[in-house]
Amino acid sequence: MTSADPRLDPVQAGLSTPLPARALDEGVTQAIAPVVPGLGRCLHAMPFGPVRIDPDDTRSGYEFRLWAPSAPRVDLVFQPASGGRLELPCERGDGGWWHVKVPQARAGDRYGFAVDTEHGMLDVPDPASRYNPDGVHQPSQVLDPRSFDWGDDIAWHGRPWTEAVVYELHVGTFTAEGTYAAAERRLDHLAALGITAIELMPLGSAPGRRGWGYDVVLPYAPQPAYGHPNDLKAFIKAAHQRGLMVLLDVVYNHFGPDGNYLHAYAREFFNPAHQTPWGDAINFDAKHAATVRNFYIHNALYWLCEYRFDGLRIDAAHAMADASSDHFLTELSRRAREATRGRQVHLVLENNRNEARHLGQPGQPGRFEAQWNDDFHQAAHVLLTGETHGYYRDFAEQPLQQLVRCLAEGFAFQGEPSLHDGGPRGEPSRDLPASCYVNFLQNHDQTGNRAFGERLTALSAHAPLKALACIQLLAPGIPMLFMGEEFGTTAPFHYFCDFQGELARAVRDGRRREHAQGSEGEGQPPVPDPNDPTVFGASTIDWDELRAAPHRDWLAFYTQALAVRAHMVAPRLGLIRPQAISHRFFGPHTFEVSWPTDGAGTLVLRAHLHDGPSDVLPRVEGALLFGVGEDNGLPAGALGSWSVRVHLVEDPLP
Length: 654
Description:
Structural class: alpha/beta
Shape: elongated
Low-confidence stretches: 1-38, 518-522
Largest sheet: 8 strands, parallel, barrel
Mean pLDDT: 92
């Protein structure tokens, strides 16, 4: 191929032989690159994706690498920003790595790889692409991470986990524009509400422009529909300026069904010995696992260091099969702690197995700060709605007792048999810090996986929902809100995606089969088609609702409760003595939980979760911090319908 651009001539381009092959398959990590202002001491030269040949010379070009152990041949497909295309042969290195250096390559150039497969040559993007502006099937783009000016953000070192109030949001539906820039304009609202940590749903590139993010196939490349990667960095920088941490949900347990080419040239990325709902498991423990583990370890470091995220939430850790002696999760935590020393970085799990072994003190190497507490949600949901299908079966008989166990001991299931799972579930959690549990009433999963995406405001009466929200916000566990929850938005949150052809039909029909019982019976509308753009649009938050009184009232309640948490609960969270926590019941619907601290008094929460008043309860010798529910006209010490009271009992004088 010829072109007027001299960079398309291999001789004129100065094409040279690759750097010596790296022993990444044996788990050797790249050397730490020089400190760059704004990126901090943990900036690293990733073993995946293009890297500058000379880190200190912006004109030195880039080396391109691809791990393709199954391929007999790999070419770099190089497309300079000025136009044209050149296929440059890569040289095979050790451990399945292919390399080529292009001294004339610059940020902004496009590239991909032509890989020899059993079905012929196949053009693929870089699986570690920093940006794929035209979608997951198109060429990747070279980015220079040093091009963004972090300015005084280098002074931001995070906030303690004990101060966390998490707000989960989906960038595409958080605002009508669906961009990082539009979300940035809502940061003042979140700061005034009392949020301290924003958790973004996954941002890795997935097919189409609409999706939850869990169908990611390019986990290093921020979804282009939301804006340029520098727009994401600007969002994080703006959040930090308001004292807000930003966490990212990451998917390390599977790839989406469209756009993942690894099976064609890197079958070793998967381990058929372990099966998951998505097919062969990610290879964390068989031959070649070191390279695969490094792919995800460096992805975590990439987000924490290059984007200065304050933490990660690991999606569906229970689906990450690993029989090795050093579990991937343990290694991930250890490596992340080491790379981000000097910053307060927080790691959170989703793990429906309730494996308490992975949890510990904030910042503890090898452990995670917290886990999403599904048990708290399930028990609360049954109390609010009476629903007992699916995983709610496990909470059908004693939801209040299980909710109280969550408040006092962390998990409701700590090894007890689960009807839904068909065997024992969980590990003892009583001795863990109270900050190890992220408690929520709504999130993307529990709302979006309903047939019609209803919010709790559509499923529960006002008084019960406010009572459970009060418990969630003022009990010591870390509270998490789902976007719009703070003002009782009426917008549903549907499952939506942007697949094409047969895959789109299969997803639509599968979802309708899944929800057929009770959802599409007589008089019920059909379950929405996730690929329909109007389903995505219906899930978008309507901020104009804040002009109406009911929504302003909800916002005032959440703001007041979170102010009390910030001043009275959060400062005591790290002082709670887990072994001293106690609880008691006053009849079938009324309970009390006490959280003694080291030298800062005892937090006491009382609740009556039923219609009608409670019996008269023993007096609490402490100051009332906050409460919901009316007790006018009741005997002293009795609680009204769906009432909650939170007290602080001071330590006795010595």
